[in-house]
UniProtKB/TrEMBL annotation:
GO terms for molecular function: oxidoreductase activity, acting on the aldehyde or oxo group of donors, NAD or NADP as acceptor. It comes from Streptomyces sporangiiformans. This is Aldehyde dehydrogenase family protein. The keyword Oxidoreductase applies. Gene3D superfamilies: Aldehyde Dehydrogenase, Chain A, domain 1, Aldehyde Dehydrogenase, Chain A, domain 2. It comes from the Bacteria. It holds the Pfam family Aldedh. Residues 13-481 form the Aldehyde dehydrogenase domain. Keywords: Oxidoreductase.
Length: 485
């Protein structure tokens, strides 16, 4: 990593107008490096460079775009260990997560969209017979729906995965012929500059990919409001997403928003309890709870409620909290001291609201690092703030219910609707309930994912869908071409 990281604009490494700021290791609280602070003018210059590169890149044969993405994936795989070490230092991820779920997934997504660049973009439509009229004689009209690139896409990425999240935006956008301006999260931007280096080494032309970072809100605002930007792809909080949407609305810019979540896990009396406990426990502690797909709101039917609480508490006890570089660590630090305090304030709020702290609830005994103990809150109700608001930490609440309809009603009584889960031994019931849940995705007896399935949210959890071919559609406009047959 360069000692003085520069911005990446128009194929050049540029000195930042705003100097540099510290990137802090959440585990050691030491300085990982110094990230560049872009000025508003530099962000707009990056968007202008992307605009200039768009025409040639959009006309580049799909095979060439595919080859660049594939070479980028190979470059990342060759440098997996040092890249993962950097990601770990910036984000506090465990070694296994940094290697397997951050850097390796980024390479996998670039490979997937190298193939995606070659997917057909034309869809023939049935011919239509038109009677004679004001527009001419009777004729048969042929039609073709063609997916075209949107143009310049601003990608605003999240701090919980500084490799997979940017790759999941950059790769499909480039595959479709768009150019991008990437504004990484301020907490861990250095990894995204390594991705830019990988794309540059793979032959991405100047201006196709631009990276501008900053700790000030003005940097992100400039990346959204630039007149050269046609679309914004954002992953982050609902509150920030709403502000971005307002700006996009004024400019009629396309949006792809993956926002907050408060996933419900509906566990019925006949569920495989061991499977439910393992799925919930693993997922709500993953990334130290900084994951929008976590089932942090557990709805347990009365017949299984007490056993589920006891077993979740026992499972939580096995989740080793500590140095993410140490063997056996499951839960590393959260991203910052401020975020740790926010999570702890929610646990205290839960106590005041009447929840019972069954496990966790106290700060782990570490001299340095932003650690939070996995925490289980029982005897909750769905109107508590800890049950309604996204905490984005290793905290899960458990709420009882009696009948199936009540479970569905409670699950849907949320501002969010990203991913919910259902556990039941009755497969017919599980799928019946899944169809009634107002969420973009539902896991039936699993927390696993199918990476070709559409991903996105209902309600305040987002706008649009990505993953698989759905991402290619998200980064494209549909053009109709008609002709007389």
């Amino acid at each position: 990593m360069p000692a003085r990281q520069g911005l990446f604009i128009g194929g050049s490494w540029v000195e930042p107008d705003g100097g540099r700021y510290e990137v802090i290791d959440p585990a050691s609280e030491g300085v990982v490096g110094w990230a560049p602070e872009a000025s508003r003018d530099q962000v707009h210059a990056a968007a202008a460079a992307a605009r200039e590169a768009f025409g040639p890149w959009s006309r580049t044969p799909a095979e060439e775009r595919a080859a660049i993405l594939a070479r980028t994936a190979e470059h990342i795989q060759r440098h997996l260990v040092p890249y993962a070490d950097l990601a770990q230092a910036e984000s506090g991820a465990t070694t296994g997560t940094a290697r397997g779920m951050q850097v390796a997934v980024a390479a996998s997504r670039l490979k997937r969209y190298a193939k995606g660049a070659l997917e057909p973009v034309e869809q023939p439509l049935p011919p239509q017979i038109n009677e004679a009229g004001p527009f001419g004689a009777a004729t048969v009209m042929g039609a073709l729906a063609v997916r075209q690139p949107v143009g310049v896409v601003t990608c605003v990425t999240s701090y919980n995965n500084p490799w997979a999240n940017p790759a999941g935006k950059i790769a499909p956008a480039l595959a479709m012929g768009n150019t991008v301006v990437v504004k990484p999260a301020p907490q861990d931007p250095l990894s995204v500059y390594r991705m830019a280096e990988a794309l540059e080494a793979a032959g991405a032309p100047p201006g196709v990919v631009n990276v501008v970072s900053g700790s000030r809100p003005e940097v992100g605002e400039a990346a959204v409001d630039s007149p050269d930007v046609d679309m914004v792809s954002f992953t982050g909080s609902t509150a920030v997403g709403q502000r971005i949407a307002e700006v996009c609305g004024r400019g009629m810019k396309r949006q792809l928003m993956e926002l907050g979540g408060k996933g419900a896990a509906v566990v019925f009396d006949d569920a495989d309890l061991a499977s439910a406990v393992r799925g919930i426990g693993t997922t709500f502690s993953f990334y130290s709870g900084q994951i929008c797909t976590a089932p942090t709101r557990v709805l347990a039917q009365r017949g299984v409620y007490d056993r589920l609480v006891d077993q979740l508490a026992a499972y939580t006890g096995y989740l080793k909290v500590g140095d993410p570089r140490a063997e056996g660590t499951v839960v590393g630090p959260v991203i910052s001291a401020a975020h740790r305090e926010r999570i702890e304030s929610y646990v205290e709020l839960g106590r005041k609201e009447g929840a019972r702290v069954v496990a966790g609830g106290e700060r782990p005994p570490h001299d340095t690092g932003f650690y939070v103990a996995p925490t289980l809150l029982a005897e909750c109700t769905n109107d508590m703030r800890v049950a309604r608001e996204e905490i984005f930490g290793p905290v899960v609440v458990v709420i009882p219910f009696d009948e199936e309809d009540e479970g569905v009603t409670l699950a849907n009584d949320s501002d969010y609707g990203l991913i919910d889960y259902v556990w039941s031994g009755d497969v017919a019931r599980a799928f019946r309930v899944a169809r009634q849940l107002r969420a973009g995705g539902v896991g039936v007896n699993t927390v696993g994912r199918n990476m070709e399935a559409p991903f996105g949210g209902f309600k305040r959890s987002g706008v649009g869908r990505d993953v698989g071919s759905y991402a290619l559609h998200a980064y494209s406009e549909v053009q109709a071409i008609v002709w007389p047959g």
